[in-house]
Amino acid sequence: MTRQSTGTTVELREERIDALDIVSGRTRYSADLSRPDALWARTLRSPHPHARIVRIDVERATGLPGVVAVVTGRDFPEYRMGRAIRDMPILARDRVRFVGEKVAAVVAESRTIAERAVELVEVQYEELPAVFDPLEAMRPGAPLLHDATDIRAWAAPLQVVPDYPNGVMQRTWGATADELAAALESSDRVIEHVIRTPRQHQLYLEPHHCLVEVDGSGVAHVWATNKAPFLLLNYLEAGLGLERGQVIVHPLPLGGDFGGKGSFMDIPLAILLARSTARPVRMTMTYREELGAGNPRHAAVVRVVSGVDREGRIGARLVHAIFDSGAYAAFKPSPDAALPEIQGGARGPYDIPVTRVLADVVYTNTVPGGHMRNPGEAQTAAAVEIHMDALARELHLDPVALRRRHLTTQARLGEDGAASEARAFDVLDAAATAIGWGQPRPPGVGRGVAVVALHTSPGVYSGALTLHADGHAVVRTPLIENGAGILTTLRALAAKRLHVAPERVEIEQTTDGFTTDRGLGGSRVSRLESIVVRRLVTKAALRLREELAAAAILSPEEVGIEDGVLILPTGERLTLPEAAQRLEATIEVSDVYEATAADSVTVSVAQAAEVEVDRETGRVILRRLVSVHDVGRIINPIAFRGQIEGALVQGAGYALLEDLPLEDGRVATLNLHDYRIPTSVDIPTPEIILLPLDPNLGVTPVGESTPGAAPAIVNAVAEVVSIPLLEFPLRPERVRAAFLRAGEAAGRSAGEADASG
Amino acid sequence: MSLDYIRAGTTEDAIAALIRGGDDAKVVAGGTALVLMLQEGFIAPRYLVDIGRIAALGGIRDVGDAVIIGATTTLWQVMTSPLVGRRLPVLVGALGRVATVRIRSVATLGGNLAHGDPRLDPAAVLLALDASVRLAGPDGERWLGLEELFVDELTTAIGPAELVVEIRIPYPDPSSRLTYRKLVGQTMDDYGVVNVAARLDVDDGRCRDARLVLGAVAATPIRVPAAEAVLRGAGIGPAVIAQAAELAREAADPVGDLRGSAGYKCDMVVVEVRRALTELASGPGGPATPAGRWSDS
Ligand SMILES: Cc1cc2nc3c(=O)[nH]c(=O)nc-3n(C[C@H](O)[C@H](O)[C@H](O)COP(=O)(O)OP(=O)(O)OC[C@H]3O[C@@H](n4cnc5c(N)ncnc54)[C@H](O)[C@@H]3O)c2cc1C
Hints:
The complex is a heterodimer of chains A (757) and B (297). Chain A contains 19 helices and 32 strands. Chain A has 757 residues and is an alpha+beta fold.
């Protein structure tokens, strides 16, 4: 049965509070700032994927006029940096493990001098065997990147280090190996696919930059492209052995994030250099460095196995994802060293009786991976959804019908535990209908769908609210604006709760007075901030009630509170800003809210694509992209739509174009001529469909709500090629090769038919 | 190290500055290619001679049997010129395939030809149109056909202190059918995997003359004389077209890169040449048919 869903268009309403400043060039980003007397630092990076450093000669570099210092890993104590796993040296000491690893740093009076001096540093290397593929890295005899004892010593609290070579971590969820084996054993058919997903760069416009100044009392002030000040403090304190208060992070807006601005990058090095030179130090990564040595999305190899009965029902499922960590695991913040949402992406919105999810993370001599939109989930959801199509075709079933048969009917949990019915069916059906599923296809045209379950993660959030005597409100927050519009959203949330126009609410970004905050990420921030704002308003209401009561010689109970409005015994209703005005008082409340799993929400989304494929050239034209969302509340419609559109384009790039391929261990796409992302003429206008809003859900995730885009596109192309496509991006040559393979396969089976007939 | 920026007022000033600067001097027109080469460290000039303000190097004029385009005319000015639109729609189509509006608005036609990159769209189509350039230098002026101009990858016959002054493009014969195809592998604003410019002069269904030019698959844009020879005098049908496409493959010598392996590019030469010639053979395809902006799809 197809349930009806109505399309809702989102109308544009609230303007971004920072829009005018950004477009008029007033916004000051990290790279726009300097300090008097600031120096520039540049680093020399390894040209080898794996080598021993025999000797470093800095004499010529040091002698260049304008050079203030040249340092190597030997000039510092052996610091190891990391988010959860501290395995990354600030500068390599004895060994380099990927092309692009920092080997030496030059500090100079100008950037040009620093650049020239870097070329004068002479390093003698002794090359070592390297390994670039995670599956090869796991095999006995593979070159080892780190000592097994070191890996265990570095391990994060929940990290289970496996025994095979180069293992970072291994984790399982769901059924045991025995249960899975038994379930597969009793299946009628076991069908498996191994899907390979590429390394993708976040491609924010603003590359990493930092400015560090150490003040007279030894405190390091950091102005950097980083999205989570308190997490950054933790990393710096743990890695450099500092106390709270020895580093101050000044919040700044970001020129794009997409998950990539959570790592520390050059900041620890800049702190050490600023300290040792006693002058402010600036460091910026060129885009070449970004592409070669940033913190891209992890490449993965994902094996998906389904045990199917005679009726085409999947009784058992294994998803085994092997992630290429790169040379270090330092950019992974999870306490288990995995990526978030591996399990969520692997299970999808399906009820399969026996499901086992297995994840391995493996060191290789490649650029270390970090976070990017849907980390963990982008890879596993893509693999599962590509497998679902391939499985359906192998079973001669309709891919949408096969999915429907297994979609979960479990209720979702919404805000305050309110349950509502599952709408995985609705999103899938709406996507299929919109894309014209089952309709005749013109030659060369294919369609694909994918359906994914999304979860928000918990975290701790801080905020403060000041109501001034003149009636205006100030919300203080340590949140960073990364371009997604969180500050505008925060203002809208506060304005709504305070019953005032958004212009009456001022947002102040600061870390002053706060001690913790999880920062941007995980599509959870708007949701959890809505809770923080609600709690702040409740606290303010209680405070104002007391003060009003005291002023009017009433007992507090005589003043009512209803939805953030104070009700006097006279029946007069005062908004909180009005109450502050009446009292001529300024009140301030603050809150730290530690969200739990109960604050999370799960929703389903579906994406569908229509492509046209040129059989002879392999070129894919994306004709349509449909995205269907199950949504609770929309706070800021422009930001909401922007997140979906942007994520769809990023998904299209993932499916069709983007990769950081290696040549001898070196990233081959080191400029933006070679690393391409879709432009406006490559993308059709996205068709965004919302199910009727379900306010029970509260604020639902949107920033990472299109992980189905890439597999939907891959599935659409596969429909035309008529064989499964198990590796993307689908650049033309790869697609053409698939056509040739499909032709051979067709030829073979025709030949077999001839022979048997 | 300092970089002197010299804004020349006349062609003579520019040439004089280039002579003074010797090997350390570089011409800058739109700067779109030059700045990238500077950034990548491929060149390290000490003098940049900006020719963008030299009035004599701009403008588009009709000289009866040809159009003459000043070297510093931007690609955008060329493609929006009514004269060019009327007489050389194939050029408009090819220019429309160059990068993005931003690049087309700044990049100049002279700079494009002087850059000598085999992948450039205007270069291939102008070769098929038998265009030539007028050069001015210390020893006076000379005309050079494009085949002589392109020597090797990023290498042209332009002397050290010479300037491209203007480009002359003869109007095609009314019987000429022209097309330009660019197969992009990634995004619409990318360089071509293979570019094909083709011209067939057709009389009574027979090909009187032909030009077949390949871009992006050799060190320079190249003509394929062997293919032109089989086309010349032939009735254009599938067999001849297939033969020409095979000869084009033999002429191609591509380098494998991120846009495709050498083998893939050779295969694409066959596909694209076949498509180009088929289009010219079947269509009314006279000179008035613009090469569609999206002709690869
Ligand atoms: C992002 C990007 C994408 C691009 N994509 C495409 C594409 O898809 N297709 C395509 O065809 N091209 C493409 N290009 C190349 C572009 O067309 C050329 O860079 C441009 O045409 C060069 O013209 P210019 O005026 O900017 O030359 P400049 O950069 O100023 O100069 C280029 C070279 O020519 C020399 N020079 C310039 N003018 C003269 C002259 N009159 N006489 C003698 N020497 C001279 C300079 O010294 C320099 O060596 C792209 C460029 C960029 C930056």
